[in-house]
Amino acid sequence: MQMVVIGLVASAIGIALGLIINWFPPVASTQAKKIDTLYDVLVIVSVPFFVLVVVVVLFSVLKFRMRPGEENIDGPPIHGNTRLEIVWTAIPALILVSLCTYAYITLTDIEEAPAKSAQPELKVDVTGQQFAWTYRYTGTNGKPFDTTELMLPKGRSVRFAIHAKDVIHDFWVPAFRVKLDAVPGITGHYRVTPTRLGSYPVVCAELCGLGHAYMRSTVSVVQPKQFDAWLAKRSQGGAAAAGAAAGGGGGGQAAAVDAKALFTNGNGRTPAACAACHTLAAAGATGTVGPDLGKALKGQSPAQIEQDIVDPNKVITKGFPASVMPPNYGQTLSPQELKALVKYLHDVSSK
Ligand code: HEC
Ligand SMILES: [Cu+2]
Questions:
Q1: Which range scores top for mean pLDDT: 15-19, 137-141, 189-193?
Q2: Where in the chain is CATH 2.60.40.420?
């Protein structure tokens, strides 16, 4: 009786603590709410078992400990108790099956496609690469464009198609709760419906190399109107950049490459756009993995800047990690693109 009373009190305290402590990041999607409820139910069901085991162990240690003079006394021999064994197998099995069923129902629920009558789903391609995320949207003109900025409209279902270029990453927005591995050669999917305006962290949840801890950025959830305006603007930007690149292909003129667009969005072949990691006020870039290039490149010669880009580990900027900036821009940027980028960075940083 004593043990049962202590166990009940301890369980009640444990459950209360489990529910009072605020474990979760903000709830920013319809999925998040259901997952938090699932988590709360798991806390309510599992805390009593943990407490029960701990209480029985501590109680027994205290109450039935060996006292002086009892060294040679042995307890009564005990044989199996069939009824007890059936009960303690059946109850956990029942609980386990119920929890699995509930978890499975929640999973199908959060993965369900929006109703046909609802607004068409927004599709965003996500690509993980050491050590940044890039996103591909379909522009208002029907043409895809790449960006390092993840912008989502509030209240509309989004379906992510998740890819990886090099190693396994994992695309996770804790405020949305859902996450999925990004595996080279496989396209994974998940959907969320953002429900809360604001900026939330995007993290890589799979150890993917030396720069893993830096593979962080943010997602902005905005009003649908604001999103449409952003999409329209980026669609034009993408078209202009593509036009410029196509024009430059024949002439081979460095001036024909839109270096600013290249810096912001990459060329589709580079490992990651520079803006994913660098701040550069002139390009509106706000990455924080690498140095602020507007400041860091002051006084550097074009040759130095070029070396920084094609051989980033030769000179490591103080206070920043080595082996995080991709080492292969020398191959993934064309000579014209590299030249244009160096000229652009030299121009904007020497102002
Ligand atoms: C995955 C993150 C990442 C990406 C993408 C990235 N960089 Fe870097 N970059 C860094 C880090 C970290 C450093 C500092 C360590 C070092 O010097 O290698 C750096 C350093 C630099 C430097 C040297 C700055 C100085 O203080 O001298 C230059 C220049 C530079 N990057 C240009 C670029 C350009 C141009 C691009 C796009 C073509 C780019 N980076 C893409 C992370 C990145
Ligand atoms: Cu990663």
A1: 189-193
A2: 122-230
Of 267, 271, 239, the residue nearest 340 (C-alpha): 267
CA 277 to ligand 1 center in whole angstroms? 7
Quick one: tokens of 202? Answer: 């995007």
Protein residue with least CA distance to atom 23, ligand 1: 308
Q: What gap in Å lies between CA 157 and CA 205, rounded to an integer?
A: 23
CA distance 311 to 305: 10
Residue 253 confidence (pLDDT): 42
> What residues flank ligand 1, with Cβ below 6 Å?
131-132, 211, 272, 274, 276-278, 289-291, 293, 296-297, 305, 308-309, 312-313, 316-317, 320-322, 324-326, 329, 341
Report the pLDDT value the prediction gives residue 168, as an integer from 0 to 100.
Answer: 95
* One CATH from 2.60.40.420, 1.10.630.10, 2.70.98.10, 3.40.50.300 for 122-230: 2.60.40.420
Note residues around ion ligand 2 (Cβ under 5 angstroms).
169, 204, 208, 215
Confidence (pLDDT) at 252: 39
Q: Tell me which residue has its CA closest to atom 37 in ligand 1.
A: 274
Write phi, then psi, for 121 (nearest 5 degrees): -70, 145
Contacts of 234 (CB under 8 A, 6+ apart): 137, 139, 145, 147
Q: Is 337 exposed, middle or buried (0-12, 13-18, 19+ CB in 10 A)?
A: buried
Q: Confidence class of residue 269 from pLDDT cuts 50, 70 and 90?
A: low
Q: Residue 54: pLDDT above 60?
A: yes
How many angstroms separate the Cα of 82 from the Cα of each of 56, 79, 86? 21, 9, 6
Q: Which CATH number fits domain 252-349: 3.40.190.10, 1.10.760.10, 3.60.20.30, 3.40.50.720?
A: 1.10.760.10
- Is the pTM higher than 0.85? The answer reads no
In the chain, CATH 1.10.760.10 covers 252-349
Q: Which of 267, 270, 277, 350 to mutate to test the pocket of ligand 1 (most atoms within 8 A of CB)?
A: 277
> How much distance in Å is there from the Cα of 211 to the middle of ligand 2?
8
